[in-house]
Amino acid sequence: MNRTQEVDRLRVDYQRELALGTDRFHAPKRTTCPWCGSSRLRTRLRTVDLLQHKPGTFVIDQCRDCSHSFQNPQLTPEGLDFYYRDFYDGLGADLAEWVFDGKGNRKRYLASARALLPFGAPRRWLDVGTGHGHFPQTARTVHPATVFDGLDLSGGVDEAKRQGRIDEAHRGLLTELAPKLEGTYDTMSMFHYLEHTTDPRAELTAARTVLTPGGHLIIEVPDPECVSSAILGRYWMPYFQPQHLHLIPLANLRRELESLGYTVVATERHEPHIPFDLTGAAVLALVNALPLADEPWHAAPPSDLQRKARTALFWSAVPLLAGVYGAEQLLAPLLRRTRLSNAYRIVARNGTAT
After folding, report:
1. What is the CA angle 26-176-58, rounded to 5?
2. Nearest alpha-carbon partner for 62 in 225, 235, 238, 256
3. C-beta of residue 129 within 8 angstroms of C-beta of residue 193
4. Which of 29, 116, 145, 208 is a plausible cystine mate for 73, CB 3.0–4.6 Å?
5. Which strand ranges, in their side-by-side order, compose the sheet holding 262-268?
6. Position with higher pLDDT, 85 vs 96
7. Among residues 192, 203, 136, which one has the least CA distance to residue 169?
């Protein structure tokens, strides 16, 4: 079955779901900050799905007291299932594999793996939100004696095991699997994972259960204090609506880890920068200016004229996108040392300092 046939097949189910509306995919709107409880909120962003163009409107509110930013109203589990569907798997599987296995990401995985070198050799490492296991596959070159396991809600984790990228696959939610995995791992990673979770605090608590005493947790997340978020607005890729539910300032995450009984042993605001802000904004602006692609969540397929126009306009813009990407890579060493850096890293030890 080719892609067009698969889209036609899926369109029936998608249109049946969408006939019921998208409001049901959202929980009740919060009037207080989920991080500190303050009622002093402001709207930081209002946008649509710029990635897949599935119907719906999404709002990110920010707390005026602690600066925590969060999707409000937040998607329900049913809503998350709808908006994640065909993004990392199904129709989107090939593109996701190409992105996560790209040269730029492999370089980033190596840097993340090396960040643990000052703290000894990991014995057994659990990569939470591992997807198809691209990080463990690369990290083995830095830690060849380490056993790498992966945890994810999607079937990608099973595929990662079949391909030998991880040694053991755990499919499900960390918060539910933690009791079974108690004290199993001396190292855990959450790379661009916490921002996808409905309750980051619960994830950090579950990680303490899974880690051995003295074990290390390494976290990398988007930095909501990045200046580019204000400059680029809805086209700042790390907003990543509707998938990113929480954008946590570094100071907030550090205090939370310490309150849970971790000791923060390292923080880094520069190296984790992903040099893609300008390119990502250009890509988002382009794909939102083009005629819509043939996707099953659209009521009808595009006409032949629309298909041809989309293809011609996209390929005519490729040289410009390549130029923006090249310039951004050249500027990356400079930009990552400024407040334009778009991500940060925290390494924490399970247990308080003695």
Report:
1. 20
2. 225
3. yes
4. 29
5. 168-171, 147-152, 124-128, 185-191, 211-222, 343-350, 262-268
6. 85
7. 136
Residue holding tokens 């707390």?
A: 63
Mean pLDDT, the chain, whole residue set: 96
Q: Give the three-class secondary structure for 99.
A: helix
Distance in angstroms (rounded) separating the CA atoms of residues 11 and 142: 45
CB atoms within 10 A of CB 69: 28
* Distance in angstroms (rounded) separating the CA atoms of residues 330 and 42: 36
User: On the CB side of 93, how many CA atoms lie within 13 Å of its CA?
Assistant: 9
Q: How far is CA 154 from CA 38, 128, 144, in A?
A: 34, 12, 26
How far is residue 246's CA from residue 199's CA, in Å, rounded to a whole number? Answer: 9
Q: How buried is 236 (Cβ within 10 angstroms: 0-12 exposed, 13-18 middle, 19+ buried)?
A: buried
Q: Each residue of 262-296: pLDDT tens digit?
A: 999 999 999 999 999 999 999 999 999 999 999 99
- Residue 263, classed as helix, strand or coil, is strand
How large a percentage of the chain has pLDDT more than 70? Answer: 99
Alpha helices by DSSP H, listed for 126-185, are: 134-139, 156-162, 174-177
DSSP 8-state code for residue 2: -
Which of helix, strand or coil describes residue 277? helix
> Alpha-carbon distance 131 to 266, whole Å?
26
The closest alpha carbon to 71, from 125, 113, 33, belongs to 33
Give the number of other Cβ atoms within 10 Å of residue 320's Cβ: 11
**Strands 168-171 and 147-152, how do they pair?**
parallel
Closest by Cα among 342, 328, 64 to 230: 342
Distance CA 221, CA 219 (A): 7
Long-range contacts from 9-13, C-beta under 8 angstroms, 24+ separation: 9/296, 10/86, 10/90, 10/91, 10/296, 11/296, 11/297, 11/298, 13/296
What residue spans define the domains of the chain? 1-354
> pTM here?
0.96
pLDDT at 354 over 70: no
CATH 2.60.40.1730 assigned to domain 1-354? The reply is: no
